[in-house]
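Notes from hallway chat w/ T.B., transcribed later so I don't forget. T.B. wanted the structure written out for a chain they're using in a teaching module, and asked if we could keep both sequence and structure tokens in one place. Agreed to drop them here.
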Amino acid sequence: MDAKTFLSCHVPLFAGISDEHLTGLAESSELKPYKAGQTVLFQGMTVDGLHVVAAGKVSVHAKAAGKGVIKVAELGPGEIFGETSILEYGTASAAVKAVEDGTYVLVIPQDAFRRLVAESPEFVARLKAMMVGRIPPPRT
């Protein structure tokens, strides 16, 4: 399956995005393979693009107050990571590692992702809703 078809059919975030934008994202993207335990992103590193899990699984690890580094999420095909670091011009707030051999991550360069953000208010609304959904509720 090509990158454009994968993005349009298997990544809910990109549903309804114009053919022109999907083509640009797909043509500029790079598919990267990972083995189990291999680090995809190190905490504190500059994020080179939006990461989309194409196959396999990744786990997200972050520092938690009083607990050290803990696993905070596991992401599978069609799920994304790295968007917050790109939008906020920051560095990765968590480490991401491949969970299993045969994990593939499609990396969409920052400039292509930012172009979509600048040109599609509908995409931005969907992206913000997804990001809000990732914020854990306050502890009481």
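Follow-up for T.B.: The CA atoms of residues 26 and 47 lie 18 Å apart. Might be a good example for the class.
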